[in-house]
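Model it.
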Amino acid sequence: MANTKSAKKATRQIARRTVVNKSRRTRVRSAVRKVEEAISAGDHTAAVAAMAEAEPALIRAARKGIVHRNAARRKVSRLAHRIAKLGK
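Modeled.
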């Protein structure tokens, strides 16, 4: 349990950030899920449209520290390759 005033404040800040980060993480996962569902359905146009929403969400999450920068870039790259494969 936090004993000092600064430790108690840090605990409050952590709780507040956790709520914000959780909603951001959910938003990213939902966007990525939409892309993956469109890919599995074989719908190229829907996949491209969903990717237009998912890519900025992933990059924004990386900037905010929700996911690692390289992990976000890797996810975007892999999704883009799968979408490109659909178009052929």
